[in-house]
Design brief:
mainly alpha
Length: about 280
Amino acid sequence: MVLAENALFFAIGALVLNGVYELVYRAAHQKGMNENSYMLIQTGTVFLCLLLFSSGGIGFQLEVSIFFLGLLSGIIGLVTGWTFLYAMGRGPLAVTSAIRKLGFVVTAVLAVIFLDETLTVQRLIALFVACIALLVMGWSSNIAHRPHPMVFITLFSAGLMTFIHKLVAITGVSVTAFLMVQAGTAHLSSHILCIKGDGYQMNRRLFFYALLSGGIIAVMMTLGMYALRHGDAIVIAPILQLGFLVTAPLSFLLFREVITWQKLFGIVVGTLAIVLFTRGG
C-alpha cells in the first residue's frame, strides 16, 4: 500500500524543518548554551507560536484525558530536549544526534503492540535501512568518540513522545491546542529547572537561537502530528527523523563542512529508506 499523499507531504515538511532545527542547535551549542535557560526560551516560543496558529480556546477543544496526555507529553518533551542538550555538550555531536533519532524504533514497537499497526517485510527492511543510515552518519572509528549515556534517555523519551502524538492525532482533536498544553507544561517546568539550577542565563545571541529553534519546533511538531494522523506511526516516525538529508547539504553550503564518502553513503541510504517507506507504507 502506498503512503497517503497528505501524510507524505506533512512528513517531508517536518523532515526538512528537523534538518534546519539541527543546524540551529549546532550553532547554539558552539556558543556555549545553558541548557535550562535555552529550553525556557525555546518552549515559551513554541507556546506563543502555537497560540498564533490556534483558532480557539484549549478548554473547549480538548477532553480531560487528552489534556492530561498533553501535560505528560510536555514533561516528556522537556526531558527529551534537556537530556539531548546535556549529552550534546558532553559527547560527539554526530553520534549523539544519530542515537537520539533512533527513538523511532521505540515508537514503532509501541505502535505494533498497542495500535496493531502492520509490520510487513518491506516495512521491517525500511526500518533497518533507516537505522543503518543514521548509524552511518554518526559513526566514528575513534573509540574516544562515545556518546554520553544521557542520550539513551533521549532516545526512549523521544520515541515515547512521538507515540503519544500518534495516540492524540488519531482522535481528531485540535493539534495546536494539544501542542499548546504540551509546550506550556514544558515551559513551566523549565522555570523550575532554572530556579533550582544555575538561574536564568542567556545572552542576546543565544536568545535569538532559542527563539528561532522554538519557532521551527512549533511548525515541525504541527506538521508531524498531521502526518501521524494520516499515516501509520511505524512509517511516519522514521521519516521524521531523517532530517540529516537536509542538514548535510546545508552544512556544506552554509558552513563549508566537507561531505565525505561516509556522509554521501548515509544520504543515499537515508533516501532509500524513505522510498521503501513511501512505496510500502
